[in-house]
Amino acid sequence: xxxxxxxxxxxxxxxxxxxxxxxxxxxxxxxxxxxxxxxxxxxxxxxxxxxxxxxxxxxxxxxxxxxxxxxxxxxxxxxxxxxxxxxxxxxxxxxxxxxxxxxxxxxxxxxxxxxxxxxxxxxxxxxxxxxxxxxxxxxxxxxxxxxxxxxxxxxxxxxxxxxxxxxxxxxxxxxxxxxxxxxxxxxxxxxxxxxxxxxxxxxxxxxxxxxxxxxxxxxxxx
Length: 222
Hints:
It comes from Amorphotheca resinae ATCC 22711. By secondary structure, this protein is mainly alpha-helical. It has a domain at 1-119. The protein has helices at 2-16, 22-53, 58-93, 104-117, 128-149, 160-188, 195-206, 214-218. The longest helix is centred in the middle third of the chain and has 36 residues, at 58-93.
């Protein structure tokens, strides 16, 4: 029995180590890594947020945690598959077959973003998990573009002294404007704030205004 298992293992390893299948296997490995990473990231976040801020039984909360984790893992696995397959196709169908084009990553990323994170459900909804992922990516893109804009080689600001000054002062200004804006929105237009952020802000800034005993002042908010 052990010899048979060892034989199967050797046969599988001969396939996955064969350069002929490397491109397609990279797609499979990308999907696997996307699913694993999505589960690792989403599970602890969903566990904390749902058990702290959602009402319902333990079973209902556990179901929500499982659903959020599964959705995140599936989305990243699907995106990795679409992206890597598209990159593979563009590589072989481009003007120079076998060579990656300068805009292949953008086109592949855009297609994956549309198919995985931009599509609505049959009921016309976009999942909250998809929205959170896209907003997370958008924020990182804006920060990267801001950094590029002041790099002498590629940016719009070429003066080294001005670049240094902006690099030093930009983050405090950005932090102040971001927090000022979110507090203003939460105060006057709370329905526009993402539900998870709104729940945490309500817990910190609204529920802290109310208590009627030492117990719910120190232990419970309500």
